[in-house]
Design a protein that fits this description.
The protein is mainly beta. Helices cover about 5% and strands about 50% of the residues. It is globular and about 60 Å long.
């Protein structure tokens, strides 16, 4: 249990309580779990396999540790490799829209770039699986720690690091990349059925938002924002159409509250 922290998501891979669970506390050799399937009493002699998540937390940068990568792009047709050393992730976005595929995008800010022939690093082949859709691959949405049963039309989550490019005399490109604050924001669009969601905005009430995606191979991706506030909201009313509520949110972080993937 020493490798797990409160707030982590884990997979119970065997036993009667198999599924994905959120760790609420870790004390000595005991983990308390929540937000998973309906719990049942397992047999005393059961062997339970638990695997942890590969988490990205905003605290990795907030704690002052600057993580950088060298991005290598192999252009097979040209026989050339383009490389970008000192690259730091600046933005990562996930978008889910009704009757459409789920899309993700990422951007980096780097210090310099170059090109050379041949391959000096091991490259990773592009994935071959089918794209995920809003219809079949959104396996769970939770709002205020409970399964959300409303009609969702659009969800967008943006993670962003505030980076500062620092050019200097006698340096081609950036001499350094300054790392400042990290933030997460997004949009949650639904059909208006009850006033519950809209009142979260009107009353500036913090709530948790968790999205879980499962691809056709069973791989799971969880976005966990335990404290979000809806900072902007509107109801769109059109003739002979359902009332659509669009809520923009910002995630709170600090102390023991963090967002993660």
């Amino acid at each position: 249990t020493e490798n797990y922290l409160a707030g982590d998501w884990i997979k119970v891979a065997s036993g009667l309580n198999a599924g994905y669970w959120r760790v609420t506390s870790v004390v000595a050799l005991k983990m308390v779990l929540a937000q998973g399937p309906a719990a049942v009493q397992d047999v005393a002699s059961a062997t339970v396999v638990v695997t942890g998540n590969k988490r990205f937390r905003h605290a990795a940068i907030g704690a002052g540790t600057k993580l950088s990568d060298e991005i290598l792009v192999r252009q097979t047709g040209l026989g050339k490799s383009f490389y970008y050393p000192g690259s730091i992730p600046s933005k990562f976005s996930t978008m889910v829209k009704v009757n459409d595929f789920m899309t993700q995008s990422a951007s980096w800010t780097g210090e310099t770039e170059g090109v050379f022939a041949g391959v000096s690093q091991t490259t990773v082949a592009a994935p071959t699986g089918d794209p995920q859709s809003a219809c079949f691959n959104v396996s769970s949405i939770r709002l205020t720690a409970t399964a959300y049963t409303g009609l969702v039309t659009d969800v967008e989550i943006n993670y962003e690091n505030t980076l500062e490019e620092r050019p200097a005399v006698a340096t081609l490109g950036n001499a350094d990349i300054g790392v400042h604050s990290a933030k997460a924001s997004g949009k949650f669009s639904i059909y208006f059925q009850t006033e519950t969601e809209y009142l979260l905005f009107v009353n500036a009430t913090a709530s948790g938002l968790v999205l879980r995606f499962t691809d056709d191979a069973g791989n799971v991706e969880i976005h966990d924002l335990p404290s979000v506030k809806f900072v902007d909201g509107k109801n769109n009313r059109e003739f002979e159409k359902g009332v659509a509520t669009e809520l923009n949110f910002e995630a709170q972080s600090g102390g023991d509250v963090f967002y993660q993937i």
